[in-house]
Design goal:
The complex is a heterodimer of chains A (415) and B (104). Chain A is an alpha/beta fold and 415 residues long. Chain A has 3 domains: 176 residues, FAD/NAD(P)-binding domain (3-Layer(bba) Sandwich), CATH 3.50.50.60; 126 residues, 3-Layer(bba) Sandwich (FAD/NAD(P)-binding domain); 86 residues, 2-Layer Sandwich (Enolase-like, domain 1), CATH 3.30.390. Helix content of chain A is 25%, strand content 29%. Chain A has a 5-stranded parallel beta sheet with strand order 3-2-1-7-19. Chain A has a 5-stranded parallel beta sheet with strand order 9-16-10-11-12, with helices on one face. In chain A, helix 9 runs parallel beside helix 11. The longest helix of chain A has 15 residues. Chain B is α+β, with helices and mostly antiparallel strands. Helix content of chain B is 17%, strand content 22%. Chain B is built from 3 helices and 5 strands. In chain B, strands 2-1-5-3-4 form a 5-stranded mixed beta sheet. Chain B is globular, with a radius of gyration of 12 Å. The termini of chain B are far apart. Classes of the chains: A alpha/beta (415), B alpha+beta (104). At the A-B interface, helix 1, helix 3, helix 8, helix 9 and helix 11 of A face helix 1 and helix 3 of B. The structure holds flavin-adenine dinucleotide (FAD) and FE2/S2 (inorganic) cluster. The site of FE2/S2 (inorganic) cluster has 13 residues of chain B, from loops.
Amino acid sequence: MTLSSVVIVGAGQAGYQTAASLRQLGFAGRITLLSDEDELPYQRPPLSKAYLLGQLDERRLLHRQEKWYADQGVTLLCDAAVAIDRAGHAVTTASGASVPYDHLVLATGAHNRPLPVPGAELGGVFGMRVKADADALAPLLGAGARVIVVGAGFIGLEFASVAAKLGASVHVVEVADRPMARALSAETAAFFRAAHERWGTTFDFGAGLARIDGADGRVGGVTTSDGRALPADLVVYGIGVVPNTALAEAAELAVANGIVVDERLLTADPDVSALGDAVSFPCAQLGGAPMRLESVQNAADQARHVAARLLGRADVYGALPWFWSEQGDLNLQIAGLSLGCDRVVDLAGVGENEKAVLCFRGGVLVAVETVNRPADHMAARRMLAGHPELTVAEAEASGFDLTAWERAHALATAG
Amino acid sequence: MVKVTFVTQDGAAHEVEAEVGWKLMEVAVNESIPGIYGDCGGQAQCATCHVHVPPEWRPITGERNAAEQAMLANAYDVTEDSRLSCQIIVSEELDGVTVDVVDS
Ligand SMILES: Cc1cc2nc3c(=O)[nH]c(=O)nc-3n(C[C@H](O)[C@H](O)[C@H](O)COP(=O)(O)OP(=O)(O)OC[C@H]3O[C@@H](n4cnc5c(N)ncnc54)[C@H](O)[C@@H]3O)c2cc1C
Ligand code: FES
């Protein structure tokens, strides 16, 4: 069947990029982007960084200016998809429209895991996922504001660094024993903890939240699971996200920690692809084990892949995962996936505000975490995408230089 | 508004209007210039916005910064003229510039 219309549900990083890549690759058919947000598609990363700091105006937060959609012939409808009729090849929207498709792309993303404690509904309690969150928070972050951050993940800590910079007093409550525990080695985590403490932020590790306290509908403080009362004017939580799978589930597509897709990012229905934060896919870097990633790289590379595959120019997805986070003057970059890593080499001889940690699994390099060392990050990306034959012993040798090793190795394998 | 031209890998020249104060990458993606993606939003994290700037424009665009230098080291088709277009801010003086896009 020739492909003449593609409908994309969700206009986040993955959805808009699928539309852009389809056009860039020459697709001339109809493209409809369905969004349940009431604005032009925008970037999320700046919400907890430059945009929150007031350094990026609204127009530049957008993925593309309004004119682009007309120029490219991409129909953006701010109308949520509420049901998929797979047999009839059509999506029903909240306004009652039926939008027919030849191919459907689910790019529904994820939403914040809600805070499961009494008081979460009080005024002054915020998540960090949509533009409205940042818009509401920004004016409240002045000097003297007492802020409790629940969850020391990437977004929580990016927010904490911004709030501290704006003069707020920031306290972070985290159930794990260190920050960013899910994704980062203990070595890099300790480095970030020390930095945040230098910026004036305090931490409670191994501590949960029992409830949020308040009066007159507004937050006044929190009570930790071990019974301590902490005062607060604002509570910002970032305790993970939940993939948006309801639409797929109702259409009887498999869901297991995300919409299940194969290595081509196709669901069991050959006319329905899915990608981005919403999906669980067989991850090449994990030997095909199912994985769900939340990153710009993942959304953008998967979008380019789906577009290329729909036009017969790609088959199996396998791009190397990478990620970045900006906290204060620290630029964290991660190449690869450290999951299951059993050996860590913390490189000596890096600068004061720098870090480079190599993660090995079964003697094979699987991830590299760096801070303020972009050359090492790029070297790591090349190594991990090609042949990461670096051994633990080589990495541990005194004077080991990642960038130099990669360069020498690339030359040797090329010659 | 000033005029800037992007020459893509196929040799086509795209002359577009650019808003002063914006990043050259932002101008390119809004005009759908092939080969420039700008995945990271201009934070020098993704290296998907590589261009070649002719030497005569360098007094205006300035030189590569340290992060940019590092992100470009060993990238595809790196020359003396290589820049990340997200690190170049459009100014009045940039009116009339032509840059070559390196496919990312
Ligand atoms: C504050 C913040 C900071 C971040 N910082 C970084 C960073 O520094 N580096 C990094 O790599 N990543 C970062 N991320 C993660 C990155 O932004 C996400 O991984 C990426 O946005 C995922 O893209 P997506 O399109 O899959 O999902 P989303 O961006 O969530 O987009 C999905 C869209 O689909 C919509 N939708 C859902 N259901 C429907 C429906 N039924 N009908 C219509 N529309 C629907 C949603 O409302 C949403 O607009 C950050 C995220 C946040 C929130
Ligand atoms: S846009 Fe990512 S490096 Fe320039």
